[in-house]
Amino acid sequence: MIAEIGQFALILALVIAIIQGTLPLAGAALNRAQWVAVAKPAARGQFLFVIIAFLCLMHAYVTSDFSVANVAHNSHTLKPLLYKISGVWGNHEGSMVLWVTILALFGLAVAEFGTGLPPTLRARVLSIQGLIGVAFLAFILFTSNPFLRLDPAPLEGNGLNPILQDPGLAFHPPFLYLGYVGFSMAFSFAVAALIEGRVDPAWARWVRPWTLAAWCALTIGIALGSWWAYYELGWGGWWFWDPVENASFIPWLIGTALLHSAVVVEKRDALKSWTILLAILAFSMSLLGTFLVRSGVLTSVHAFASDPERGVFILGLLVFVIGGSLTLYAIRAPQLKGGGLFAPISREGALVLNNLLLTTGAAVVLLGTLYPLILDAFGGGKVSVGPPFFNATFVPLMVPVMLAAIVGAMLSWKRADIGAVFSRLKIAFYITLIAISVTAWFAGSLRDVLAAGGIGIAAWMIVGSALEIAERIALFKGPISNSWRRAIGLPRSAWGMAIAHGAVGIMVAGITASSAWRVEKIQLMAPGDVITVSGYSLKFEGAKPIKGPNYHGERGLFTVTKNGKAVTTLTPEKREYPAERSQTTEAGILTMVSGDLYAVLGDKSKNPAKGGASWSTRIYFNPLVAWIWVGAILMACGGLVSLTDRRHRIGAPKTARKPAKKAADPQPGPVSA
Amino acid sequence: MPANLRLSYFLPVIIILTLAAIFWSYLGEIKDGKSIQDLPSALIDKPAPVFKLPSINSGDKGFDSAVLKGQVTLVNVWASWCAPCRIEHPRMMQLAREGVAIYGINYKDTPEAATGFLTELGNPYKAVGADRTGKISIDWGVYGYPETFVVDPKGHIRYRHVGPIMAQDLTDKIRPLIKALNK
Question: Could A329 and B144 be called an inter-chain contact, meaning their C-beta atoms sit closer than 8 Å?
Fold first, then answer.
């Protein structure tokens, strides 16, 4: 019964979405206020019915109702409650329901909080959201019905792929979708603006918070996924350039570019048509990612569920949404009037550089991901590019982005004095040189020289961001109370930017150190054996059988000492899930600031020489690896801080605030370092 | 309005439509049963390509297509930079312990990295050939990494597996097939 309510709610939501997607749009064009007014209640209604459907599906999972095919295929009575809940979106049908739920939630947010928007713009934005909703609801109802019944109902479900039964991964998809779907807001605003034929700073001020929120969620989502890969896949790697990872990384790169270019529209009324294009592309890439993951066109480690039938539907959707919006763009964008002019050396100039490099980076990742398909389509045979391609192309593009970020943040709008900025950055420059020299000193090979460069970039980003803040609050240049007062008065967006840029530095340090100086030891160990890795002695105490709610396996015990002092114990596990007939490894990890000690228990083998059994074990020391995720989380925090900026909280003020804004920005000038 | 149309603004939509056309042809192929999992199906039940591969480093020997005759063999295409290859590796070791003859084609790798991979994780291969340019892998129709082929005693390719071999693939496909081919 509950499942039927859910299905019925989805149908009602589709009907409402059709109304929401057409009536206000027509009303705005024909000047009919009543039609325009439909947008708000429709957005509310759509959210209501979608959330009912979502809760019905969750109910089926929590109560293990195996008469629902989706639950029977993906759940199991013995599964812990958390994974029953996360099981809702751990499969194709349910994840699409989550997708439309988040879409409807964003629509509701515009309806409720967008009261300051011009009514026609709001109606158009909601209408475009409604149309996206129509596409996805139809997709669910016609190709991936989550409420399909099974008769007779099986007594037990098939279970969830055990590799997915993990707290980190339970929340990975919701965050990713918050990001993907969040970009749909920027998309709807862009399309609505193209229809209206008007893009102004107020528009950008409306788009930016949505983009920022989506970007934060996507950052957290990607970080969760990579963290999961790190501790779950059992060999300490955290990024594979796998098609599915790339599918989430491309929208992130475009979204990052969009964040930066929207600032230019907002502050300087320039780069309008480019910003619109990025807003369309960010969401388009999110859709493309969904297509690649769901259609089976690309093979991937992650492709747990794929189906070509659905691929056709998503492809149609892709052509309709992306093709339609880009055609609209091609017709309307040339008419957008450009705003403020600027010299190449200026804040705008730096942001243009940032945009060019980030979008090129996104294009390179997209090319690497699709290359096997494209080459094959032109008869070039089937080949694949691996990490060597991405490391050789993507990384060099990101180096100038990071170097320029710090300089760009200090440049003034319109025209800037780069010499003055360099002299203000003197300290950062010296510290970077010291970091590079010290790293290179302790190293010898070419790989380490490159790594020294990486550490240098990290130092540059961290120190440069700190300098930027120190200067704006006049630290050490007067009484500390004065600096404190300035620090509080500093726009939150300035804090957000410095935090996010510094966080990139922290992340780069983690990436560099963990890939350049990782220590890996693989051996057979009998109980009592000791192995030393990076100064830590690990004594293998043996392994014991364990039994969990839906698995059994072995748990190894290592006691870790350093210089004779006890540090901790590590308990890596090897699990066997009988319902799903598969195995997982659970690494034992000690996370420290200096790096992670990472232990994996391998297969047991007979060892007559030692009078018993021994286990193959793998021990890693991954220097600074936790910095990667700390950096990612801090980056998202920077975004959130920027989101609380005064100009977002009090809506879109007009010209009145502009002079005040300028006064808050320090004018460039020769300031002694 | 036509005066305002500019061709360069149509570039994005043209790129997207081209991509869509490529995807469309792919979905067509997949629908016709030519799933990516067994593309290109043309090689199934055909003799394995003729080739000769040098070793990864001068220390050990490479192999050529002649070794694939006379017994059931597995040809596994891998690389040290390939994450799924590491995921799959324990299953390769398991098969090697069960006495299956596995030959490795090391795709676009450096000798140091490839040797490192094998000394760290163990070497399940009877011999490993280095396909530094990736040419031989193309002859085999390799699409992604890792990829594994089951070759019968006559030297004909009987099965192709794209992606890492998981425990379930061993029990469901690989082991039964090897058993059947050995009869």
Answer: no
A16-30, A96-110, A301-315, B129-143: which has the minimum mean pLDDT? Answer: A301-315
Which residues does chain A have within 8 Å of residue B16's beta carbon, measured at their own beta carbons?
Answer: 284, 318-319, 322-323, 326
User: Is residue B20 less than 8 Å (CB to CB) from chain A?
Assistant: yes
Model ipTM? 0.70
**Angle formed at CA A392 by CA A408 and CA A304, multiple of 5 degrees:** 100
Task: Provide the token pair at A78.
Answer: 């013995």
Are A522 and B120 an interchain contact pair (Cβ–Cβ within 8 Å)? yes
Domain match, B86 and B15 both: no
Whether B124 and B145 share a structural domain = yes
Of B138, B36, B145, which is closest to residue A380 (Cα–Cα)?
B138
| A330 interaction partners in chain B (CB closer than 8 Å) | 5-6, 9-10, 12-13
Phi, psi of B40 (to 5 degrees): -85, 135
Please tell me the total count of domains within chain B. Answer: 2
> Could you tell me if B57 and B147 lie in one domain?
yes
CB of A341 within 8 Å of a chain B CB? The answer is: no
The whole domain housing B18 covers 2-31
- Asked if pLDDT for residue A659 goes beyond 50, the answer is no
Model pLDDT, residue B38: 44
Per-residue pLDDT of A414-426, as tens digits, reads 888 888 888 888 8
B105 and B51 within one domain: yes
B7 shares its domain with B57 = no
Distances A556 to A535, A564, A590, A592, A599 between C-alpha atoms, Å? 21, 21, 15, 21, 9
* Residue extents of the structural domains in chain A: 1-160, 527-626
CATH, residue B86 = 3.40.30.10
For chain A positions 351-390, those within 8 Å of chain B (CB to CB) are: 370, 372-374, 377, 381-384, 386-388
